[in-house]
Amino acid sequence: MMKNIFSLLLLITLVAAPAVAQSKKKAIRSTQKVESELIELERQLSEALARQDASVLDRLWSETLVFTFPNGQISNKAQRLAAQKPSADPNQLTNRNEEVKVHLYGNSAVVTVRSRWVDKAGTQQYGDPYQATHVWVKQDGRWHLVAAHVSQVKT
User: Fold this and answer.
1) DSSP code of 86?
2) What domain range is 119 assigned to?
3) How many domains does the chain have?
4) Do residues 134 and 111 touch, judged by C-beta distance below 8 A?
5) Distance between CA atoms of residues 38 and 132, nearest Å
6) What is the pLDDT of residues 118-145, one digit of tens each?
């Protein structure tokens, strides 16, 4: 009797193990897909901010966006969009995301972004590194930025 129970348990374990492993692989692939999607949205966000592209920002930002500037001032979506004034030279301000880390929590994510912003004044270039913490929430099937805090990195 014990031998039959042991054999049954062994059979269940052997049958279930591949299914569990496959389920874990699917979860990892799904997580990687979402992380890649958020990294791409961060790239689009950075590019839109550099170009001051209000239409892209309007699509990415939640209606309830809370934005905290490096000086501690707080702004919302309407205020930020109203401040977007595209430059006559679209290549004047550029940025590059140097490090992006995604932390998923179901339908929300915290993304930390270290970036370098470079501006031109005549032939001179100057740039500063920034660290941002972004909170994204999936609403109506799309990711929206709901909160952002940006700090200048002192070097």
Assistant:
1) -
2) 2-152
3) 1
4) yes
5) 14
6) 776 666 666 789 999 999 999 889 999 9
